[in-house]
Design goal:
Layout: H1 2-11, E1 19-23, H2 27-38, E2 43-47, H3 51-56, E3 63-67, E4 73-79, H4 87-90, H5 94-107, H6 117-123, H7 129-146, H8 150-163, H9 168-176, H10 180-184, H11 188-194, E5 217-220
Parallel strand pairs: 1-2, 1-5
Antiparallel strand pairs: 3-4, 3-5
């Protein structure tokens, strides 16, 4: 959050806004202390039901969606790191992304990073049927978890993960609520090792443009203490 606060302070006078949404089943109890400590000056919301994940088909964090003044998506889901502290893990350069953000804030719809309708169509696709069912399974698991039926929820968390195995939001949220090794036979570290060279995040597609927007929407989770 401090990094985004710095960028927001730099660009807020250019009709630039950030909406940061914490996806956390624990809600205010778990997410609020991190937000309060960071004291961001931009808008931060807490999404206890993971509505944003479902509506935008997000599978990991941090994810940025660029939305213009007319409410149109001009860049869909992309990994949105504000610094390089975890670059050794994921290999993505934060500076390239931030340069694109600054270009959009300055040039608006004329920015080379604003995607055309055709480019958006190429990047966006209808949700797969199994992913829609996975979202329903995850929502049911969340309901059971919220109603003190955590053990019943596990089977539905597992089914959501089976139907959409690339959705790390499903995995991390479920594992954070219980003993992952005991109830799921795995944990975050083990699953990352299983990638065996496969990127944890899909590569960004910024390099197709000649020049290195304003992220109105940053999907985040609070850091997990491990």
């Amino acid at each position: 959050m401090p990094g985004w606060q710095t960028l927001y302070a730099e660009l807020k006078d250019k009709n630039f806004e950030i909406l940061s949404i914490a996806q956390d089943t624990g809600g205010v109890k778990d997410a609020a202390p991190w937000i309060t400590k960071a004291n961001p000056q931009y808008t931060v919301l807490i999404d206890q039901t993971h509505l944003v994940t479902r509506l935008f088909d997000m599978v990991n964090v941090p994810t940025g969606v660029w939305i213009d003044e007319k409410g149109r998506i001009v860049r869909p889901n992309e990994t949105a790191y504000v610094d390089n502290r975890y670059k050794v893990f994921h290999g993505l350069e934060a500076g390239d992304y931030l340069a694109a953000v600054r270009d959009w804030a300055t040039n608006g719809e004329k920015s080379p990073f604003v995607l055309s309708e055709q480019e958006l169509k190429e990047r966006l696709s209808p949700q797969k049927e199994e992913h829609a069912v996975a979202a329903a399974e995850f929502a049911l698991a969340e309901f059971l978890s919220h109603t003190s039926r955590s053990q019943e929820a596990i089977a539905h968390y597992k089914e959501a993960q089976r139907l959409n195995p690339d959705n790390w939001n499903y995995k991390r949220q479920a594992w954070a609520l219980t003993d992952a090794d005991r109830d799921y036979g795995t944990n975050f570290g083990k699953e990352v090792q299983k990638l065996n060279g496969k990127p944890y995040y899909p590569p960004r597609k910024l390099t197709q443009h000649k020049k290195p927007l304003r992220p109105i929407f940053i999907h985040e989770e609070k850091p997990k203490l491990r």
